[in-house]
Amino acid sequence: MASQTASTAAPDTPSGQTEAVVVRFAGDSGDGMQLTGGQFTLSTALAGNDLATFPDFPAEIRAPQGTLFGVSAFQINFGSTAIETAGDAPDVLVAMNPAALKVNLAALKPGGLIIADTGEFTARNLDKAKYDHNPLDGDELAKWDVLAFDISALTLEAVKPFGLGNKEALRCKNMWTLGLALWMFDRSREPIHDWLKQKFRKAPDLAEANIAALDAGHAYGETAEISGPLKQYHVAPVESDPGLYRTITGAESISLGLVAGAQLAELPLFFGGYPITPASAILHHLANLKEFGVTTFQAEDEIAAICAAIGASYAGQLGITSSSGPGIALKGEAMGLAVMTELPLVIVNSQRGGPSTGLPTKTEQSDLYQAVYGRNGDAPLPVIAARSPADAFECAIEACRLAVHYMTPVMLLTDGYIANAAEPWKVPDPTGFAHFPAKFLSEKNATDVDGNDTLLPFARDEKGARPWIKPGTPGLMHRIGGIEKAQGTGHIDYSPANHQAMTDARKDKIEGIASDIPDQDVCMGNTSGKLAVVGWGSTFGPIHQAVRRARKKGIDVSHIHVRHIWPLPKNMGELLAGFDNVLIPEMNAGQFKTVLRDQFLIDAQSLTKTSGQPFAIAEIEAAIAAYFDDVDGNEGGQVDVNDTQLPSPEKAQS
To answer: Which of 441, 422, 426, 386 is nearest to 561 (CA)?
Structure first.
């Protein structure tokens, strides 16, 4: 019934009671690994653990079944202590077929546990995975614990009473596997039961079949009389502040934050979008929030999407658009239009590997230059970067605030990792957020030389913002568009002096935002010292953990993480000047390093990674240690490609 290979477990492999564990579910794209991981995440959150997840799936809509290119995986790191990342390497690998094993095996910690479905290790599937033998036979997997049994057959047996066809019955095997995982980590099945009944409420037989498969997997763990690797582990709840918690992905968090921002501005929200990975989920979530004054529009292309959002802002709503790098490039001219017309607009960029189509399902931070500089002419706009799925909520509100207060487009940067990953989120008290109601001009705002009331649509307040005028407001007809405007009147004006003045006014308005954002703080460590590790965006988790470990060893290192990318906080230059060295880990070729060098003339060093993978904690730990090893010239640089962290099908074939 089951085969096992015993080995000596690594010290940090889960055993009985454990502080944290990393589990990776891997299988074919059709095996339901993302769904399995999502439901295991739900049960883990309800158990009170802190967690972080990392969904990883192929760019192909559906690669050929059983092939290396079709492997989909979901990794979760959960524990009784603070969890900042999805984990450097899994303790447990659930491999639903040979391809999943081959692609992910190198990532598994020595002494880790492999759970494999022998029913899928057929000659045909082994050949598709480029195996010339069955790796479950012999000593090839001796350095890991192996639990191999026929999950497919056990699933078919569990759902036999429901009369499903073979194909439909085998679709339940992800639930069987989830049931075993729930038993292994002492999780309740009831929330999954309820979810299945809701999901298949129109097909109750399918609901009951999946519940039967789930319960059978759980029962297998309870009753199987096997020793060795199959044990039950208990992960205690993490200590947390009282309050209402839920798991949230970055896309969900941004969507809720945008709605909250519109509510705080007392405006209806219009979202114009076009489907693109990994940004599409924002459109999907907002489409379900119509009761909060949300209008969603799936446009025919990226240009139509942003132009519709600009039109909505012109009409008095809060215009929002979203995309990833290729789509942001297409939106570039319209962003310039929003800068020229000085209308509020929020642009969400969920970054992915580039350029061009690039790596649609892999993460990167390579759109920073595009966000800060990437428009024709001098077209400055504020840029904000979220550091985690939960943080994206407040960043979205801040983007709305700046857009409305300063009558400007704002770029909000996330990435594929933040968009898809999940973590616990303490639902904030709505009364804790300050309102920033939009103000519309309702009457003429100036007096002409004859003492008559007149309208100056490009007059500026103390912040440099022009008035917001709804079209159709009596007596306030004015000209608007992409051609340069005369100061105050907004009439077409090509004169050199006027263009200089308007360019300066738009620039000064954005630079003035630095006085309306918090000073930069230090996340961990001191305000001066030997080394500051400066990050932005989703590098927060691995940097924070690496700095924490280094400081426990007595190393003089601090962590600074920047939310407001442009304009930078007023005290940023002074803060960085207090450190002997500045290291900037980022998932690009060194873009934020260039911005900081340009603004503050500091000799910052890059730690770069552009392999479609998030930073591992160990990689940043090693980079920190290089500043304290008395070896000159080895600081910073490019992280070597890590084929074990997020394995590639190409590597698996070799």
So the answer is: 386
CA 27 – CA 61 distance, rounded (Å): 15
User: Distance between CA atoms of 15 and 216, rounded to whole angstroms?
Assistant: 24
Rounded Cα distance between 14 and 296, Å, is 46
Q: Own/partner pairs for 224-228, CB < 8 Å, 24+ apart?
A: 224/1, 224/2, 226/2, 226/4, 226/147, 228/4, 228/6, 228/145, 228/147
Q: Half-sphere exposure of residue 327, counting CA atoms within 13 Å on the CB side?
A: 29
Q: Are 363 and 542 in contact (CB under 8 A)?
A: no
Whole-Å CA distances, 469 to 141, 271, 506, 634: 69, 20, 18, 57
Closest CA to 430 of 230, 178, 588, 257: 257
Q: What is the pLDDT of residues 21-50, one digit of tens each?
A: 999 999 998 889 999 999 999 999 999 999
Closest CA to 169 of 178, 160, 182, 181: 160
DSSP secondary-structure letter at 234?
B
Residue 590 has pLDDT above 50, yes or no: yes
| SS3 annotation, 526-581 | CCCEEEEEEEEHHHHHHHHHHHHHHHHCCCCEEEEEECEEECCCCCHHHHHHCEEE
- Given a contact cutoff of 8 angstroms between Cβ atoms, the answer to whether 109 and 10 are in contact is yes
Nearest-Å Rg of the Cα atoms of the chain is 27
Strand partners, 411: 347, 383
Counting every residue written for the chain, the total comes to 654
pLDDT in tens, 512-538: 999 999 999 999 999 999 999 999 999
Distance CA 75, CA 87 (A): 8
**pLDDT tens-digit map of 455-482:** 999 999 999 999 999 999 999 999 899 9
* Residue appearing with tokens 């980022």: 586
CA dist 633 and 556 (Å) reads 19
- Locate 346 and state its tokens: 């929020």
Nearest-5° Cα angle at 292, 287 to 295: 45
Report the alpha-carbon angle 385-389-394, nearest 5: 60
* Coil, helix or strand at residue 133: coil
Strands (E), 152-201: none
